[in-house]
Write a structure and sequence with these properties.
By secondary structure, this protein is of the alpha+beta class. It has 32 helices and 23 strands. Helices cover 51% and strands 17% of the residues. Strands 1, 10, 11, 12, 13, 14, 15, 16 and 17 form a 9-stranded mixed beta sheet that branches. Strands 2-3-4-6-9-8 form a 6-stranded mixed beta sheet, sandwiched between helices. A two-stranded parallel ribbon has the order 5-7. Strand 3 and strand 4 form a beta hairpin. The longest helix is centred in the C-terminal third of the chain and has 29 residues. The protein starts with a strand and ends with a helix.
Length: 715
């Protein structure tokens, strides 16, 4: 009989009847959101659909950040691709194809439809191998851009990750297919239908769990050795992982295997390693001895016994590689290029099973301590950073001024974890949901990756924004972490107001560009045009030591008219520069990611209408506002600390023994706890500092304020 460690893999927890009822409601809500996005952005429904699915797929690790590039041709030799991303470092080309249904009701498709769509993608790549096909395409078209990229980089493309985006329900359960070969590269086929879209959107922890049928993938059980205390709340196992199995799993799931809290870090830095490839190719029998192995986590295992009575893993729920991304990627690369016999390669793996309720606490600590070979900064674990917690707190209490023509005030909802807004709505009755959505309108939700896009546009660094949501977020995380360490008081109500004001401006420019006649005549590269237009104006104002008045935008909850006029004048002119790369560069999307593009735009001289004196402030006022805001932030911090202490008196007074056992108790912290135990709450400066430091150290053990906040949130 199989035994289970943690939650048994494969359980979805849904009942058939409620699912049928709820999925139709979910589809109607999805369709309403899609139509709103299309109307707001000025883009066709198909483009808005692609954007919704592409953002979710990138966040889940199914794809890199995709560029929307609709390529379509009907007929017997017809082809189709709707978006792509080229990862030159790992030799991976990501492509997406849309299966969009405009029907009001949810449709059902069988595998014939994905088979047809994959065939259209395959034909495009096969034709792109020939120069005659490329010569027949218009040089400014998305088809030319992608075909030229495929032709030029054909020797570097080792793997093509193809995904179908469908708002229909696929009748089969299997959504990931084995790789096949196209133009000399392996092509992995993946499907995100509407049911899977919902699963990803509502996944706890932000990512869709990977369900691995190990017996099927490995042609048998995966032997394991129990390595934990039976009374422990985590279970650990030592595993000898076959190189073929590890490469096969990574080939199927890619970045989805990389632990959520460091996924951005791994996507940016997990490159193939020449030393690892050399060992796998030339001395595969010594790989186990030379390699440090990998560290992984899971939410659950099913362990069975083979015919000889030895234990082995048959299923793994949500396998996540915490340390060992280079090893995993390098083995896949070595196998793809045929230089290594992976049947002779074995990798040691430490696998820890963690209860889903403990994931937020335990996994970040495993990540931090496991990643010791290469220094990983706090920014790499930014998903759990206190910055997000603080922004969420402010967003739940800070009311925005009533917009013109409205009597009610509203709030901006900051999504610290993907799907929080949807979850909040789902927990309420219909009447409570309506009240919640009046207080927090859908168009006032700010996601983490969107925030990075807004902030980096105004930094200004539009070339960084153009690299895509994940890479942009990484750069933003580095900057925020550095500021957090040196100037914690910066992140207060004033910061949040400025953040919301930037969102208001960015969204206005985005909608204006999408609905402009000049853009409709020549669609494409809207995301680049928007961020570069904002970037140019911010840079232009800085030359005169001026800055946009974000306080004014916050108070009006709208973009001042004179600023609207300026952006309207600038956008088509900026677009002209962005879409005119040097003769040596044919791919505009790649050009927009480069510093040279930003240099060309910021050094351009553009005339625009409108006097911005009323919408901007000078250097002296900027400095004074920063000074006032820091002082306000310091007061808020002290009030916040007092509130934390009062709300958690029982916990704090019980910490003394724990702190002493861990060797982190200081005299000043002990003094503070004694005074609190005696009912003396007015702590002096030394005691306050000692208690703050103790609570900070407790966070490193997963037993401090961060853990308390997560418990409160779950409750």
């Amino acid at each position: 009989m199989p035994t289970s460690a943690g939650n048994r893999a494969g359980s979805t927890g849904r009942c058939s009847v409620p699912e049928e009822i709820s999925i139709e409601d979910d589809y109607r809500e999805f369709r309403e959101e899609l139509l709103r996005d299309a109307e707001f952005s000025g883009e066709p429904q198909r483009a808005a659909f692609f954007q919704m699915f592409a953002e979710l797929a990138a966040d889940n690790g199914d794809t890199a950040d995709l560029t929307y590039a609709p390529v379509f041709r009907e007929g017997a030799r017809g082809y189709q691709v709707d978006g792509y991303a080229w990862d030159a470092e790992r030799g991976e080309l990501h492509v997406a194809i849309c299966d969009y249904h405009a029907d009001e009701d949810l449709q059902t498709i069988n595998m014939d439809r994905p088979t047809q769509l994959f065939g259209r993608v395959r034909r495009f790549f096969q034709q792109s191998a020939g120069e005659d096909f490329i010569d027949s395409l218009e040089e400014t078209s998305p088809a030319f851009e992608l075909a030229d990229l495929v032709h030029q980089a054909s020797a570097q493309i080792k793997r093509i990750r193809c995904v179908i985006f469908s708002n229909a329900r696929l009748s089969t359960r299997k959504k990931t297919l084995e790789a096949e070969e196209v133009i000399g590269a392996k092509m992995t086929l993946n499907i995100i239908d509407f049911v899977r879209y919902l699963d990803i959107a509502s996944a706890r922890g932000g990512t869709e769990p990977i369900e691995l049928e190990v017996r099927e993938l490995n042609d048998g059980l995966l032997p394991c050795l129990d390595a934990h205390d039976p009374s422990s709340d985590t279970q650990s196992y030592l595993v000898v992982m076959p190189g073929e199995l590890l490469a096969r799993i990574y080939g199927l799931y890619g970045a989805r295997l990389m632990e959520q809290n460091v996924r951005t870090f791994l996507q940016a830095r997990t490159k193939t390693n020449k030393g690892i490839i050399h060992t796998a190719s030339d001395q595969p029998e010594r790989f186990f001895a030379y390699n440090n192995g990998i560290t992984a986590t899971a939410n659950g295992l099913v362990i069975e016994k083979d015919e000889d009575g030895r234990p082995g893993i048959s299923q793994i729920r949500n396998l996540q590689i915490v340390n060992g991304g280079q090893t995993t990627a390098s083995l896949l690369y070595a196998g793809d290029r045929g230089s290594a016999d992976l049947s002779k390669v074995f990798v040691q793996m430490k696998l820890t099973v963690i209860d889903p309720d403990q994931v937020d606490t335990v996994v970040p600590l495993i990540s931090r301590y496991a990643n010791t070979q290469n220094k990983v900064s706090e920014a790499d674990f930014f998903s759990n950073h206190e910055f997000h917690v603080e922004m969420q707190k402010i967003s739940r209490r800070l009311a925005a001024p009533a917009a013109a023509g409205s009597l009610a005030t509203t709030k901006w909802f900051y999504e610290r974890a993907r799907g929080q807004y949807r979850t909040e709505c789902g927990l309420r009755s219909p009447s409570e949901k309506r009240r919640f959505q009046i207080e927090y309108p859908r168009n006032q939700v700010i996601q983490k990756t969107d925030l990075a896009k807004y902030q980096m546009s105004f930094r200004p660094a539009p070339h960084v924004v153009s690299t895509g949501a994940q890479k942009c977020f990484l750069e933003f995380a580095k900057e925020i972490d550095a500021q957090w360490q040196t100037s914690r008081t910066t992140f207060n109500d004033a910061y949040f107001k400025e953040m919301a004001a930037r969102a208001i401006i960015f969204r206005w420019v985005d909608k204006h560009v999408g609905t402009s006649d000049w853009y409709k005549e020549d669609r494409g590269y809207k995301a680049n045009i928007v961020t570069y237009t904002i970037g140019w104006l911010v840079h232009h104002l800085s030359q005169d030591s001026r800055k946009l008045d974000f306080d004014l935008v916050w108070k009006e909850q709208d973009v001042p008219e004179e600023l609207q006029v300026a952006f309207a004048d600038l956008a088509p002119k900026v677009a002209g520069v962005v879409k005119s790369p040097p003769p040596s560069i044919s791919n505009i999307s790649e050009y927009a990611k480069k510093e040279m593009c930003w240099k060309a735009v910021r050094e351009s001289e553009f005339d625009f209408s409108g006097n911005l004196s009323a919408s901007t402030i000078g250097a002296d006022e900027v400095r004074q506002r920063k000074k006032d805001n820091r002082a306000e932030g310091e007061i808020d911090l002290e009030i916040g600390f007092d509130t934390l202490v009062l709300e958690n008196m029982a916990r704090i007074c019980e910490l003394e023994d724990f702190a002493k056992r861990k060797g982190i108790m200081t005299p000043s912290a002990a003094s503070a706890i004694r005074k609190l135990n005696g009912g003396r709450f007015n702590l002096g400066g030394g005691d306050r500092k000692g208690l703050k430091q103790l609570l900070g150290k407790l966070d490193e053990f997963g037993a401090g304020p961060r853990a308390w906040a997560r418990e409160k949130e779950r409750a």
